[in-house]
Amino acid sequence: MSSTAIDLLLADEASRPRADARRNVERLVMAAREALDETGLDATAHEIARRAGVGIGTLYRRVGTREALLRAVLLEFLGGMLTAADRALDADDAWQGLVDFATVYVRLRAASCGVNEALGDSDARLDLSETSTALRERLERLVGKAQEAGAMRTDVTWQDTAWLLAGVVPGDHTIGLTPGGEQWRIGLRVVLDGLRA
Amino acid sequence: MSSTAIDLLLADEASRPRADARRNVERLVMAAREALDETGLDATAHEIARRAGVGIGTLYRRVGTREALLRAVLLEFLGGMLTAADRALDADDAWQGLVDFATVYVRLRAASCGVNEALGDSDARLDLSETSTALRERLERLVGKAQEAGAMRTDVTWQDTAWLLAGVVPGDHTIGLTPGGEQWRIGLRVVLDGLRA
DNA sequence: CAACAAGTGGACGATAGCCGTCCGTTTAGC
DNA sequence: GCTAAACGGACGGCTATCGTCCACTTGTTG
Question: Fewer CB within 10 A of the end CB, N or C, for chain B?
Answer without folding.
Answer: N
